[in-house]
UniProtKB/TrEMBL annotation:
The gene is Dus2l_0. One of its GO terms (cellular component) is cytoplasm. GO terms for molecular function: tRNA dihydrouridine synthase activity. It comes from Schizaphis graminum (Green bug aphid). This is tRNA-dihydrouridine(20) synthase [NAD(P)+]-like.
Amino acid sequence: MYFNIFCSGGSKEIKVFEDIIKFKNITGCSSVMIARTAEKNCSIFKKDGKLELFTVIRDYLRHAVDYDNVAPNTKYCIQNMLQNIQETEQGRHFLESTSLQQI
């Protein structure tokens, strides 16, 4: 009999793709769930290294526009990516946006 074992946690330790594999091996789980770390920069799943944050945001915005995602959801997701950057001038300008065009 075979059971799938999933492990969640480790967000503070997982910074790059290799950390996901290491976490999986240490725990002996068949799968690992990544949430907060992936919300910050979803390119963490790239085996050849994460992309620069603003590249990820730009690509995310293209998809949001292409698939008519609603502005509040798009803004929420980007806010999770920006985190402390929201305190910058660019971040404050972003926080004032209300439409996909403004974002």
